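PROTEIN DESIGN WORKSHEET
SECTION A - STRUCTURE
LENGTH: 266
TOKENS:
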């Protein structure tokens, strides 16, 4: 579908393993963009790095915005993703970029933890990339469940939790949307999300039939197959392929670890 007007631009801004690719594909369908969203990753502004002092935050957002604008011009894309724009910077980003909307998805950190560990252990090596987790690299002999349980309380886990909390709050802005990952796994909530995204991004409301069509093609089990149809060839572990299952942490974390994380997530 090609709309007779240029759609606005949208930035999906989440921490890792929260369904940014999933939401990006929905946004692409809503605005009629063919193909998947471009990935804005690891920009030099390091907006998640709060150990850098004396650096003007407005300048960081200006540089981030400039990089994003350059990518938009070079690709012609209207949908982008990033893991480098924490919520505290979203209002400033939106003020600087009136043609952009920001969409965020928040997922239970305990499932994020499991999915991210399995992603580093199986998926990255399967596609020829090194693990981004030092703990996983140093403990390759451990079983999946021991990897998760022994990772608990490490410095890396605390860093992941801090990053997650930087994306899990609320932003009150007319060009901002927030969704809960677990609720999107149910069709009624997913349909409401598609409708909300269309109302946010388009000047004219989509028909109910078009919303139903996008919803049906965006149910997680369907899009997961479409996006990762070559996983069997990569021999990627089932533990990673099941990243859409809410509550995976119940099998991997001890009860005490789960309860402790529940408190820290608040």
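SECTION B - SEQUENCE
RESIDUE ASSIGNMENT:
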């Amino acid at each position: 579908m090609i709309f007779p007007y240029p759609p606005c631009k949208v930035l999906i801004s989440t921490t890792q393993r929260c369904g940014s690719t999933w939401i990006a594909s929905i946004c692409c369908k809503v605005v009629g963009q063919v193909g998947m969203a471009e990935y804005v990753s690891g920009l030099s502004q390091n907006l998640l790095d709060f150990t850098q002092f004396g650096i003007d935050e407005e300048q960081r957002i200006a540089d981030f915005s400039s990089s994003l604008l350059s990518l938009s011009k070079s690709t012609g894309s209207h949908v982008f993703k990033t893991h480098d724009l924490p919520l505290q910077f979203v209002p400033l980003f939106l003020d600087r970029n009136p043609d952009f909307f920001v969409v965020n998805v928040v997922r239970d950190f305990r499932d994020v933890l499991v999915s991210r560990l399995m992603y580093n252990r199986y998926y990255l090596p399967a596609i020829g990339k090194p693990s981004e987790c030092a703990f996983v690299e140093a403990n390759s002999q451990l079983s999946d469940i021991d990897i998760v349980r022994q990772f608990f309380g490490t410095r890396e886990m605390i860093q992941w939790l801090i990053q997650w909390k930087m994306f899990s709050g609320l932003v009150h802005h007319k060009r901002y949307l927030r969704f809960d990952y677990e609720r999107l796994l149910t069709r009624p909530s997913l349909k409401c999300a598609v409708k909300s995204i269309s109302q946010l991004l388009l000047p004219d409301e989509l028909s109910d039939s078009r919303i139903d069509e996008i919803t049906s093609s965006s149910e997680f089990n369907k899009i997961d197959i479409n996006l990762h149809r070559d996983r069997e060839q990569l021999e990627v572990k089932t533990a990673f392929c099941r990243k859409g299952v809410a509550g995976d942490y119940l099998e991997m974390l001890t009860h005490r670890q789960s309860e402790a994380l529940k408190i820290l997530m608040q």
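SECTION C - NOTES
Residues 86 and 166 are 5 Å apart (CA to CA).
Residues 1-5, 225-242 have pLDDT under 50 and may be disordered.
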